[in-house]
């Protein structure tokens, strides 16, 4: 905790959980989709569904998908801006068993038809926790530089990535692996002490068993 | 865990103000220079000034239609010289409304410590700065005093309405503002701690009961109470009035009171004002259901 946790953040109101946190969940989904989104299906669960409209949660999630930060004054016009940019955004009420009351389930598609599905909760004070990416469980807070690597579940891929990071002087602070089933696709979540430069992430993308590698950086 | 007593000890041993003690401890902890932190705080204060300005717009309305235009009314009457308690008081009230209304209407604010209580510090600091002809530097430094108090409360109790009720949000903001303006007015570190304690004591037990679950009713107007309470506590502290119960103990009492509040009175919109005929009717109109 520091002085700027209690005098801050600078944010668009009215609610740190229903507005600022919602923007950050949207940011995360947007960052995980390759390219720009053209279509979004957003499921609102619990309190997000019940009181979201009054808190601008729909605008906040949409703004987040478009890459706006929680302090961006364009958030209140994000639905119009999305329409102008040709992004179709559809909301629905969902019920997700055991999910935090402030949960959104976002599915995004880009022009090429690639998609990503992200489930995240706004857990208070603008903090978030992404719990699921493409059906695989993760624990993403977005507070540290985090590398997400989608790869085939075969021997040696994890060692390859972690060794490559070590060779480039990048220290790993947290690690989680999730997979749909043995031998299928797997998702590595690596929390890093410092952000690696683009050369490193590009290097990882060249590994034959890796289909996607995304670096998520904490908000400035 | 940081304590108010800890900060007072540093201030006493080094002869520094509370804000300097907090600033230097933070610079050390974050590995930044005090100047860098002050620059960041200056930008936050700038946002506070902008939100106070934006909230004065008489056309402002929230999505629910429950909020907007109150700050404009009070400010206009104050500027006409008709304020019941004088211009200083009228402006503090108007600014607390302005920043809170700005927040409710999706404007940009500084959470201080939360979005729901964001009107109290700007209203207190801007109004005291203006009234006493103080430089902006004094308000920026006072935000470090406020931050010190806020960190102690957040570490030892809570600043979340869902956990501790409104006393944890508006109460904390009011305690932070009381200490901050006490320092701006030249009060000692001990006076700041007394102002903090007295402000928080006055709102122990205040429940969080937002109508329809929105940060609007009664939050916006409770911010006004928060600034008025802060100024009253500072007034007492500056005159040498002391809190019988020390600030750290008041903070722990606030935490225990919060723990004993039923869930219906902790931001669930199931009790208090939310559970009145009018409150339920508003929830029904906005969301087609009551909780």
What is the fold's blueprint, element by element?
The complex is a heterodimer of chains A (220) and B (291).
Chain A: H1 3-6, E1 10-12, H2 16-32, E2 37-46, H3 47-55, H4 57-65, H5 78-84, E3 88-94, E4 102-110, E5 115-124, E6 127-133, E7 136-140, E8 146-152, H6 157-167, E9 172-179, E10 185-192, H7 198-205, E11 210-216
Parallel strand pairs in A: 2-3
Antiparallel strand pairs in A: 2-4, 4-5, 5-6, 6-7, 8-10, 8-11, 9-10
Helix pairs in contact in A: 2-4
Chain B: H1 4-14, H2 18-30, H3 34-54, H4 70-79, H5 87-104, E1 108-110, H6 120-131, H7 136-156, H8 161-164, H9 166-184, H10 189-201, H11 219-238, H12 247-260, H13 277-287
If you had to describe this structure to a student in words, what would you say it looks like?
The complex is a heterodimer of chains A (220) and B (291). Chain A folds into 2 domains: 3-134, D-3-phosphoglycerate dehydrogenase, domain 3 (60s Ribosomal Protein L30, Chain: A, 2-Layer Sandwich); 146-216, 2-Layer Sandwich (Alpha-Beta Plaits). Chain A is 30% helix and 37% strand. Chain A has helices spanning 3-6, 16-32, 47-55, 57-65, 78-84, 157-167, 198-205; strands spanning 10-12, 37-46, 88-94, 102-110, 115-124, 127-133, 136-140, 146-152, 172-179, 185-192, 210-216. In chain A, the strands form 2 sheets. In chain A, strands 3-2-4-5-6-7 form a 6-stranded mixed β-sheet. In chain A, strands 9-10-8-11 form a 4-stranded antiparallel β-sheet, sandwiched between helices. The two termini of chain A are 16 Å apart. Chain B has one domain (4-287). In chain B, helix 4 (70-79) runs antiparallel to helix 5, helix 6 (120-131) crosses helix 11 and helix 9 packs antiparallel against helix 10 (189-201). The mean pLDDT of chain B is 96. Strand 1 (10-12) of chain A pairs antiparallel with strand 1 of chain B, so a sheet runs across the interface.
């Amino acid at each position: 905790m520091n002085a700027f946790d209690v005098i801050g953040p600078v944010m668009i109101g009215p609610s740190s959980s229903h507005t600022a946190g919602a923007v950050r969940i949207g940011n995360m989904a947007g960052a995980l989709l390759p390219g720009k989104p053209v279509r979004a299906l957003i499921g609102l669960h619990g309190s997000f569904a019940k009181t979201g409209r009054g808190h601008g949660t729909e605008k906040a999630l949409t703004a987040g998908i478009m890459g706006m930060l929680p302090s961006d004054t364009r958030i209140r016009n994000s639905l119009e801006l999305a329409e102008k940019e040709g992004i179709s955004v559809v909301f629905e009420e969902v019920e997700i068993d055991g999910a935090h009351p402030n949960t959104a389930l976002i599915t995004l598609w880009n022009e090429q038809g690639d998609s990503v599905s992200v489930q995240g909760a706004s857990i208070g004070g603008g903090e978030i926790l992404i719990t699921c990416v493409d059906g695989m469980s993760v624990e993403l807070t977005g507070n540290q530089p985090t590398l997400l690597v989608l790869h085939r579940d075969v021997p040696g891929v994890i060692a390859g990535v972690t060794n490559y990071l070590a060779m480039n002087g990048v220290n790993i602070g947290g690690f989680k692996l999730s997979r749909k089933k043995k031998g299928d696709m797997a998702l590595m979540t690596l929390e890093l002490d410092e952000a690696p430069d683009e050369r490193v992430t590009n290097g990882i993308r060249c590994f034959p068993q890796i289909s996607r590698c995304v670096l998520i950086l904490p908000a400035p | 865990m940081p304590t108010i007593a800890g900060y007072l000890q540093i201030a006493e041993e080094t002869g520094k103000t509370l804000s300097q003690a907090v600033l230097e401890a933070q610079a050390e902890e974050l590995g930044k220079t005090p100047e860098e932190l002050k620059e960041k705080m200056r930008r936050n204060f700038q946002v506070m000034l902008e939100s106070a300005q934006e909230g004065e717009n008489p056309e402002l309305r929230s999505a629910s239609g429950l909020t907007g235009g109150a700050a404009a009314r009070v400010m206009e009457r104050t500027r006409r010289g008709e304020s019941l308690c004088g211009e200083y008081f009228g402006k503090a009230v108007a600014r607390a409304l302005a920043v809170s209304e700005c927040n409710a209407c999706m404007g940009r604010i500084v959470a201080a410590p939360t979005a729901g209580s964001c009107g109290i510090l700007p209203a207190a600091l801007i109004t005291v700065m203006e009234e006493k002809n103080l430089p902006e530097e004094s308000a920026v430094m006072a935000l470090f005093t406020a931050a010190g108090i806020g960190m102690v409360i957040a570490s030892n109790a809570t600043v979340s309405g869902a956990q501790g009720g409104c006393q944890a949000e508006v109460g904390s903001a009011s305690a932070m503002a009381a200490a901050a303006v006490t320092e701006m007015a030249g009060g000692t570190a001990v006076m700041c701690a007394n102002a903090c304690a007295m402000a928080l004591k006055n709102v122990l037990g205040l429940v969080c009961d937002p109508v329809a679950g929105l940060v609007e009713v009664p939050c916006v107007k409770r911010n006004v109470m928060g600034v008025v309470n802060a100024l009253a506590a500072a007034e007492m502290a500056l005159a040498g009035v002391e809190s019988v119960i020390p600030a750290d103990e008041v903070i722990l009492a606030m935490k225990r009171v919060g723990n004993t509040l039923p869930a219906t009175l902790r931001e669930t919109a199931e009790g208090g004002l939310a559970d009145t005929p009018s409150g339920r009717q508003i929830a029904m109109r906005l969301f087609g259901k009551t909780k």
